[in-house]
Amino acid sequence: MPLTVLLPNAPSGSGYGDPDSAAAPSSSPLSPSGYPTGIVAPRACSSKPRTMQSLVNPRALAPVAPLAVYLQSMSYVDVRMRWKKDASFDAVPVLSHARDLRPLASLARLLSPSPVPVSAVSKLGRSLETPDRRVTAFLRRFPAAFVESVGPQHNLPWFRLSDAAARLLREERDVFTARRADITGRLRRLVLMCPRRRLPLRVAQGMLWHLGIPEDYFKDPDHGIAQDGFQILTPGDGVICQDGDGDGRELGLIGDGKDQEMPLSVLQMNAMGKSGSLAQVPVPLFPSKGLRLKQKIKDWLEGFQMLPYVSPYEDFSHINRGSDVSEKRSVGVLHELLSLFVTCSAERRRLLCLRQHLGLPQKFHLVFERHPHVFYLLLKEKTCFAVLKEAYMAGGDTAIGEHPMLEVRKKYVELMEESREIIRSRRSGKPIELESKVSGSGDIEDCIEILS
């Protein structure tokens, strides 16, 4: 419809049409059109109708390409759960006494059946890693292994080995001599797990206790590591050593192990024993009593078992570090590592030095928390131990063989438990009960000497 604007004659002084005209006096003359002088009258609209022009010019639209939708999916499932105690592992003596077992055996090797002053070993608390670094107090905690007496001068304490501890030392040496090939073969497998087939000597030295090898294996020339296929490499031998934090020496295999066939891992031997094939290698699961998983974690765990298995002795450079296949390899490496140890367990912080040499991720310690059906974290006296469940819950249905040194370690634990009974009897004033607790003719005399 055409738009027509009609403006009536504005009265004098009304100010219509110009704001400034409102201030004009009422006596201003009017023009013939009825508006004040100086004000132009609006032009009348034409009677011819006009159509409103469109604000948008019509044009042809270009064809629009279909939208591409990018969906990013992640396979990571947070399965880290709160730690739950398992009393069955706390009841294993060789695990519950693991913290004191190593310094006790180390002190037994330093002492002799003849009394020596405590000053000979009192300053070795840091290297022995005794609790609170007080060697004298530690020796007095185990009177069944260390017999205390008064020295000839200044009433200083002197200590010697008990007969039972001396027999254990001889038995330990005899077991290593008889089963040397089996025990040193575990160290060989550890070196073969390294991509470079080498391991810094200081790192290998720290693993000797867990592998059941004497701690003077590299220092005493009588052991002859060459007969076991090992050699110590130094930077001056024309080889490149990558031990930047230590003295540069590395433990390697004679011939770098190039001509040696890679062994099968424990998981592969389990798969061969059950299915006779290596097409699928699952990880044995052993749920603890009362440990429940969410449904999404159960679904993820079923898919995790179907993933390809990469042996710790194989090349892993083609694996994506953030994939589930890489995580399954980490589980397999830690599973194989713990299966080589005497008690199939180790203090978790001691495994950190192996991360770079075994090709493990930065936070590989979280694997123990993400797989509670494979590993158990034993918390004992502010110390965390990683335990392989298969070694204690599988019974005979596993390829993990018993370590030759395990029986010797159990006898050390028996000495520790006997020491507790000796101290308890001394406090109660009943030394006669010691005759039924201690075996051997010389041990009773040792206990009487302690109580006097």
The tally of helices reads 16
- For the biggest β-sheet, the strand order reads 1-3-2
Q: What is the residue-mean pLDDT, rounded to a whole number?
A: 81
Q: How many angstroms does the end-to-end distance come to?
A: 126 Å
State the major sheet.
3 strands, antiparallel
Q: How many whole angstroms does the radius of gyration measure?
A: 42 Å
Tell me the strand percentage band: 5-15%
The 3D shape can be described as elongated
| Parts with pLDDT < 50 across at least 5 consecutive residues | 10-28, 434-442, 447-452
Alpha-beta classification = mainly alpha
Series of H and E elements: HHHEHHEEHHEHEEHHHEHHEEHHH
The level of helicity is 25-40%
Annotation, overall tally of beta strands: 9
Protein name: PORR domain-containing protein
Region (Disordered): 9-35
Biased composition (Low complexity): 21-33
InterPro entries: PORR_domain, PORR_fam
